[in-house]
Structures are given as C-alpha cells and as structure tokens.
Write a structure and sequence with these properties.
By secondary structure, this protein is an alpha+beta fold. Helices cover 36% and strands 19% of the residues. Strands 2, 3, 4, 5, 7 and 8 form a six-stranded mixed sheet that branches. Strands 1-11-6 form a three-stranded antiparallel sheet, covered by helices on one side. The chain starts with a strand and ends in a 6-residue tail after the last strand.
Length: 269
Amino acid sequence: MYNSTELRKIQEKKLEILIDIVKFCNENKIKYWLDSGTLLGAVRHGGFIPWDDDIDIALVRQEYDKLYKAIEKDNNKIYKVVSYKNNSNYPYPFYRVYDSRTVYENGYINSDIELGICVDVFPFDTYKDVSNEMRRLDTFRQLSVYTFYGIRDKNSMLSNVLRYLLVLIFRCTRVKSWNKKMNELSKKESKYEYIDYLMEKKNGVTKIDANSLDNVIDTSFEGRQYKIPEKYDYILSTIYGNDYMEIPPLEKRVQHDDFIAYIKRKDRL
C-alpha cells in the first residue's frame, strides 16, 4: 500500500503508465504534449516537481478523441482508459489512463468506481472567451459527485445546510449528463484565437494563442524524451508568470490531497 508520504513510489508507477501512452501515441502518429505542472517540472526540474506526483498530458480535441478510441480498441490487459462515456459514474469531464492493477482513493469524490493510479489526459479546444455556462455546468458536476467531506463552512451552519441540500439534490442527477454537456459546449467553439482546457471553472482567464501549440519538441523528463510545446517559455510564462523557473518557498510547495493507493491483492501474487 502507498500513501501520500511515499511520493516516489507513486511517481514511478505513473511513469510506467506515461511510457505506455507515449509508445501508443508514437505507434498511432498521435500528437500530445506534457501539460501544466508536468510541463513545468520537465522544464524546471527535468522531471517531476519534487513535491508533486501528477502527470498531465494534453492533446487538441481531434487527437484527444483519436487516442481515446485507439486505447479502447487496443483493450490492453493492464492499462485502461476511463471516461464518462464508458462509466456513467466517472466524475470528471476529461479521461484518465490508469493501471488496472491498482486502486487510488482520496476520500473526497464519491464516484462509486475504483480509480487506479493514473495519468490525466486533457482536451484543448479553441475559444473566444471563457463561458459562464461552463462555470455553471462545472458547479453542477461537482455537486453531483461530492460527499459531505471537504465542503463544510466552519463559519456558517446555514451555509452548510444549503450545501448539503444542494449535494442531495444534484446527487439525483447522473454526473455523466453534466460531463457530456461540458464536452459538447467545449467543442462548439472552433477556429478561434485562443486555446485551453475549457471544462473547468477558471479563477482567471489565461489567454494562450491557438497557434502556440502547433509545434512540439523533445525534452527530458525523468531520463526519457517526451514532447513539449516548442513555445513552452511563452506558455509557462502565461500560466505561472515570468518567474516560473524560480523554486517556490517551502510553504508554497503544495502536494495534492492525502490519498491511499495500493496494488490489488490478486495482482501481488
């Protein structure tokens, strides 16, 4: 069994998944790139951000759909893809490639399914402006899968009651319906000047030029070569600021929520 204090073991397991995905992308001529904190880790650290276990990759929508269909068709015995399309209880609008020999639990999302140690795969769509409708749909999506854990307001009992009532109401609606609507809304925008992962509530608008992801180059991540955007400096500066290469102070080195991950008993033999 692993927990959030055994970070390197989780990182190594996720690397195994990434290696398999990239091998599959290369064989099927699918263009991907390392995204978000994984991109930052590759450029700043040559691998994982030392206090982080996440691996995120991204693809433009057409390539994203192509990879999903190819992995499903391949039907690998170990590495599987999960999305709202093949599991109606899956809580997220993007898909994950996970190691089916593992289980990953964070106690926060009540999804009624086993989510193994995984790599997150995000679609990028072009857009003109961030949609208020997407913010609304994402709120409904979250309410439909949240447990009571983690949504308490310490300063207001009334607020807690309202939150609990909303969760109960939205738990009556399948999360699949919100995920489907979010994907459909995201794909409505086409050939606009900006590009991003759109299916989430955004605190601020990050304007990334659509053509900045046209070309990718190789870079080292944990001793292997992976694709990153050729204009990585522009992208990282846009997302994290011009000082993205500076190591943050200890108090800002935030790991994800506590979790428990383990290999299924039958696969230990």
